[in-house]
Each structure stands twice: as structure tokens, then as C-alpha cells.
Write a structure and sequence with these properties.
- With 212 residues, the chain is of the alpha/beta class.
- It has a single domain, classed as Rossmann fold, CATH 3.40.50.
- The protein is built from 6 helices and 6 strands; from the N terminus they run βααβαβααβαββ.
- The protein has a 6-stranded mixed beta sheet with strand order 3-2-4-1-5-6, sandwiched between helices.
- α5 crosses α6.
Length: 212
Amino acid sequence: MPERTLYVVAHPEATHHVDRLVGGQYDSELTARGRRQATEIARRLAEIVPRGVDVELFTSDLRRTAQTAEVIAATLDLQAIPMTDLREKSCGSAGGRPQQWLDERFVPPPAVGERMDHDEGIEGAETKLELARRAYRAVDTILGRPCAHQVVVTHGMALTFVVSAWIRMPIEAAGYVAFRSTSGGITVLREDDYFHNRAVESLNDTSHLSGS
């Protein structure tokens, strides 16, 4: 197996960000600024993905990630493959409501004890365990394909478990982990073809974003 690289993109600015609404699986879309950022992301990927290699593109099927993937697909001449498993954590009845509404009801996980299957107090919301299982399944599917260069478009919280799956962290050990990524960040994950060690080569690179 040749060296493998995953380029993991956290979608750029979406309407729920500027409207201060809870995201999760609430199906917001990119803002005008987010669309400009998607173009900047695509240009950066065109710079760092080697020329002439086969590349695959996977995306969460929510609008804001699908719109990001559309721009990347057009720039790199790819066809996006949608994956429900790459969606953000569902916030249940909080999705699309003002962030303050969630903040007033949210039950944080305990410092010690059950953190992955913890009930956050929001009706219909996924637990972190449910999100992690989806993300791990998505990574298993992606890595089960032979392509050595794969772009993955997902969400900020889901990205933590994409990276956790990449380094093969057991799900039961992932209760405290957080790989922070801001909107529009690119994380590069690379496996060498000799030792087959999996590195987090860069995390949340935003140097390609103009800030406009």
C-alpha cells in the first residue's frame, strides 16, 4: 500500500454561525463569506495535493458541507461522494434554535465517569458515543478504498472523531479527546508506506483563508 493522505476540511462559515443558531444537523447553508472561503480551501487543496494522482472526495450530506465539496470538486475535477456518517452531531430539539436556548438547558459531561454515552439533557440529541461510532464507520469505509489521496469534508465536532479513528484510538478511550478545528480549517493526516505509522501532520491550518 502506498503512502496515504487524508485532507480533512471543516466546512467554512455557514448561516447558523452568523445567526447564532445551534448547528448540529440543522441544515444551514454557506454564507457569501463561506462560499469565498470554500474557494480558498479548494485553491489550497489544489496546491497541496500532488498533481497527476488519483483523488477521492467524500462529504457530509448536509448542505453546508455539500456546498463546500461542490467547489472543491469543480476545482480538482472530482465527483463528491456523500456520506451521512460524516454529518455533525445531532443536537436534537435544539437544532436551529438560538444558541442561548441550548446553553440554558445543556448538561455538561462529568469530569470523571461516563462521558461518551452521557445524556446532555436535550431531547433527541445524539450522544458523543453515537457520533463517534458514525465517524469511525465513515473512516473505516474511506480507508477501505485503495485511493492514496482522499479529501474529507465534515464538521467541527465530527472532525475530532475522524482524527481519533485515523489514529485508531479506541472509542471507549475517546471521552476526553478534542481536536479543535475552526471553520474552513484543513487537517492533513498521513500514513507512511514503510512503518505504516499514522501522523497528524497538520491540524486546523487556516493560513489559506483571507479573512474577508
